[in-house]
Automatic annotation (TrEMBL):
Protein name in UniProt: Outer membrane protein insertion porin family
Predominant subcellular localization, coarse grouping: membrane
Alphabetical list of InterPro entries matching this protein: Bac_surfAg_D15 (IPR000184), BamA/TamA_POTRA (IPR010827), D15-like (IPR039910), POTRA (IPR034746)
Domain POTRA: 98-176, 179-251
PROSITE patterns referenced in this protein's UniProt entry, alphabetically: POTRA
Keyword set includes Acetylation: no
Pfam families xrefs: Omp85, POTRA
UniProt-annotated location(s): Membrane
Length: 572
């Protein structure tokens, strides 16, 4: 029996129709190749009250015969339909199933006939399915569009069905002229420079049109984070040249991100922590960026950062970023770190939406003790010169609320540390990996697992070399940067349910392994632990931007000791 795939949307109808068959309501006779349930579901689509007018009967006949034609039964016919008060009987003569007979392909000059045959996906003697022929023709047209012939046309000629049910036809190919993009027009860029858009689209005037590449331009430009919308590129022609037209709508190009957290304490009312992050994403319409961040972790510890990013140096896909960080660690020390990063994009010319970069970093970390002499601990003054190399890959469909794709960032850093009494080497390795799985068609959700690994090793490592861990960005359910670690492996899992365009609900679960050895001056013993956190988060869109509300519980927490984080992501 011919097996036919049944779409999910009519599955319920098939189940109900099968029950009706058992009850004797609708009966099909003569169908040897198509299933009863499929044909009965077709009948039920036209009348749910079992009252069949002449018009409905004709429509039922037409639909059933179309299903047979779709499956290659061109000579199928309905002999009769009998209707009484108890049942409906349909008598079908399926006839002989059509087969692919002789066919000819002509008109092709650029593509070889053998390649076209492979794309077409049919050969003589196969059962003839019109849908298979249509899919094959679309594949051929896609192939032409990706090698510079977007105007290629295909016609089916001399289509006939002989007495043996063999289908004969000719495929005429008109390749058209090869299209080279000699001009580009950008519409809607009031602030953003046209030159930036062309560079980011990885477009060169004079290149051959490729539909596969040009369909990715929209996704690529949206990753800049400065456009509200981008249209698919359109081909245009005039008397002398051909080109593409890209329509953009600029969004708000600056962002504000803030978080407030409440940390309960056993013998007091607790205290607030938080951070403010401001990013200017398109200075002077050139894609340059400037950002500043202030963070307060507890009553005594604060951190400040500034950064400036230059996207193109000498009109080459070479970017550079200057970064400065200062951290005041309670009354123990101050850490300062200037850093320079150079990145080179190596994205393939066809897959322009999959961004791949390599980057090099050089920085110097200075630790300046601030503890007074009467304190029982004091960190050594030191300077560490660091050299790092890393990779960056991003195939996400959106940088803010991604539904599909992968994000990867990894780097290795070698440091030479110098104190007043000794020299030492220090290594650092990090990898961040994120996956986005789209279940919007079934659950209206996106499942997001994130994996992170950090390790710091070397001689004479102290507290200033380690990194801080915990909180909203790493392990939810714990205070911001509650733990100090030299090794950490953690995973974040969340399922983002889109309840409406401006309301997202996401349950989450985080798990982490952290470790640090003895770290002078204060950590006199090693620490190792397996931790977890879980909870529920909300993202609500308001007039001021996205409002984030997260309630998280760590290991051993009760409802009263859970952590609450409130954040605002606003653009202006």
């Amino acid at each position: 029996m011919l097996i036919r795939k049944i779409q999910y949307k009519i599955l319920l109808s098939l189940i109900i129709s099968s029950l009706l068959v058992a009850q004797g309501k609708i009966q099909i006779h003569g169908n040897k190749n198509l299933e009863d349930a499929l044909l009965i579901a077709t009948v039920r689509e036209f009348n749910g009250q079992n009252s069949f007018s002449n018009e409905v009967i004709e429509r039922v006949k037409e639909r059933i015969l179309n299903i047979y034609i779709e499956n290659g039964f061109y000579y199928a016919r309905i002999d009769s339909i009998k209707i009484d008060s108890e049942k409906v009987e349909i008598f079908i003569n399926e006839g002989k199933q059509a087969r692919v007979g002789e066919f000819e392909i002509y008109g092709n000059k650029t593509l070889k006939t053998e390649e076209i045959m492979e794309l077409l996906g049919i050969k003589r003697g196969d059962v003839f399915y019109p849908a298979t022929l249509k899919r094959g023709i679309n594949k051929i047209l896609d192939r032409y569009a990706n090698i510079g012939y977007p105007l290629a046309q295909i016609e089916i000629e001399n289509f006939s069905l002989d007495e043996n049910s063999d289908v004969r036809f000719k495929i005429k190919i008109d390749e058209g002229e090869i299209v080279k993009i000699k001009d580009v027009k950008i519409v809607g860029n009031n602030l953003t420079k046209e030159n930036l858009i062309i560079k980011e689209a990885r477009f060169k005037k004079g290149e051959i049109y490729s539909e596969r590449k040009f369909k990715q331009i929209k996704k690529r430009l949206m990753k800049l984070g400065i456009f509200e919308s981008v249209s698919d590129p359109e081909i245009f022609f005039n008397d002398t040249t051909s080109g593409i037209l890209i329509k953009v709508s600029e969004g708000r190009m600056n962002s504000f991100d803030g978080v407030i957290g409440y940390m309960p304490e056993a013998n007091s009312r607790g205290y607030l922590v938080g951070y403010i992050n401001i990013l200017l994403k398109n200075l002077f319409g050139t894609g340059r960026k400037f950002g500043a961040r202030w963070n307060s972790e507890n009553k005594y510890t604060q951190e400040f950062e500034i950064r400036y990013y230059e996207p193109y140096i000498f009109n080459f896909p070479l970017g550079a970023e200057f970064f400065f960080q200062q951290r005041k660690q309670d009354s123990t020390y101050v850490m300062r770190k200037p850093q320079l990063t150079a990145e080179l994009e190596l994205t393939g010319w066809e897959n322009v939406s999959e961004i791949f970069k390599v980057f090099f970093q050089i920085s110097q970390t200075s630790i300046i003790p601030t503890a007074t002499e009467y304190l029982p601990f004091k960190i050594d003054e030191s300077k560490t010169l660091n050299f790092g190399l890393g990779i960056f890959y991003d195939s996400r469909d959106d940088i803010n609320l991604a539904k599909t794709g992968i994000f990867l960032k990894s780097f290795y850093e070698l440091g030479n540390k110098k104190t007043s009494t000794a020299r030492a080497k220090r290594d650092k390795f990090n990898i961040e990996l994120e996956f986005y799985f789209n279940f919007h068609k079934t659950l209206k959700s996106v499942f997001v697992p994130k994996l992170n690994f950090w390790v710091i090793s070397g001689d004479r490592i102290d507290e200033g070399d380690a990194f801080r861990f915990g909180g909203m960005k790493t392990l939810r359910g714990y205070r911001e940067r509650e733990f100090i670690a030299t090794r950490a492996l953690w995973a974040n899992f969340e399922n983002r349910f889109t309840l409406s365009s401006d309301f997202i609900l996401f349950p989450f679960f985080d798990i982490a392994y952290i470790y640090h050895p003895v770290l002078p001056p204060r950590l006199n013993s090693s620490f190792e632990s397996l931790l977890y956190g879980y909870g529920l988060g909300l993202k609500i869109f308001s007039k001021i931007g996205w409002l984030n509300l997260i309630y998280a519980l760590g290991r051993g927490d009760s409802f009263k000791t859970g952590k609450i984080h409130i954040g605002v992501e606003s653009e202006f």
